[in-house]
Amino acid sequence: MKRVRLMVAILAVSSVIGCTNMSAQQQGTVSGAAIGGVAGAGIASIAGGSAWTGLAIGAAAGGVAGNIKGSQR
């Protein structure tokens, strides 16, 4: 559980840094990847799997979804 909290903290800090000069599509990609990564790590750890694998899969899926959503703005 400590690993998940560390990953959440790292993602939260990294998602806030440097978003001011980004386009809407770039912001959507970063936000989607951060949210997806946190969700994936949480779901994987609850299900008894690897939190790192859940983080990677969730971040990839969230980044793609955020990119699509950001390009529609």
From TrEMBL:
<protein>
    <recommendedName>
        <fullName>YMGG-like Gly-zipper domain-containing protein</fullName>
    </recommendedName>
</protein>
<dbReference type="InterPro" id="IPR027367">
    <property type="entry name" value="Gly-zipper_YMGG"/>
</dbReference>
<keyword id="KW-0732">Signal</keyword>
<feature type="domain" description="YMGG-like Gly-zipper">
    <location>
        <begin position="27"/>
        <end position="71"/>
    </location>
</feature>
<dbReference type="Pfam" id="PF13441">
    <property type="entry name" value="Gly-zipper_YMGG"/>
</dbReference>
<feature type="signal peptide">
    <location>
        <begin position="1"/>
        <end position="24"/>
    </location>
</feature>
